[in-house]
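G., the chain you wanted modeled:
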Amino acid sequence: MSIYVIGDLHGCHVEFISLLEAIDFNPTHDTLWLVGDLINRGPGSLACLQEAKALGSAVRCVLGNHDFHLLVVARGGGRLKKNDTLDDILASPQREALLDWLQSQPLAVQEGNTLMTHAGVLPSWSAEQALALSGEVQAALHSESAGAFLTQLFGNQPDRFREDLEGVDRLRCIVNVFTRMRFIDAQECLDFAAKEGLDSAPAGFAPWFQFARQDDLHILFGHWAALEGRTPNAKINVQGLDTGCVWGGSLTAMNLDTGERTSVPSLQGGR
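Predicted structure as tokens:
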């Protein structure tokens, strides 16, 4: 039995299947962790979502910002963007079942001392707190007012989590930390403008993984393709899994037990 963690799929279904073959994944005894952003940008968004759902209990998945974007478009009154590749999902006869499955996924998954989220976790958040905050968002997504929540989800404020935040502001901030975070400052304020490599950090900001923690939690994340899976000068035990498949890089799986990485090249031609 092995646990494999795979970086952002972004609709790269052919590479996904190739990677599963490369690691000899067997859903009867292996487990697959997907770090979010299963869909969008790549040509096989529908197939990726179908594949993940079909693997059933062999898959543990967290939501990424593009997954939330799909939910907002489909159920929160949002609009498609120019480069979205979500039409096949929205037009599929399986649309509602796939959306239900996606909407049921958490924002954080833990196994032992390892925590997986899409973008990362604030240095001040313990694993217990992260799971509890993920649970708050899950409760909103499962509630009768989920559509209203999705309608109000997107936005950059508040840009710093405080325990006294309430309502949609609190939930929006939690989602932004888990799915959009890259650079933070010493007060854990989030910057949403810089999206490239480490040299794009605004003055006074640094990657979230360059701030020390009070524990030795092992953190897995994706989201930041420009890092190419690297976490330079990390002050914590962290692994980046997004190696930019949809941008012409590769799709990467890591064996959680051994740390061994297996990658397959992108077929996207440097989109």
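The chain has a mean pLDDT of 96.

Shout if anything looks off.
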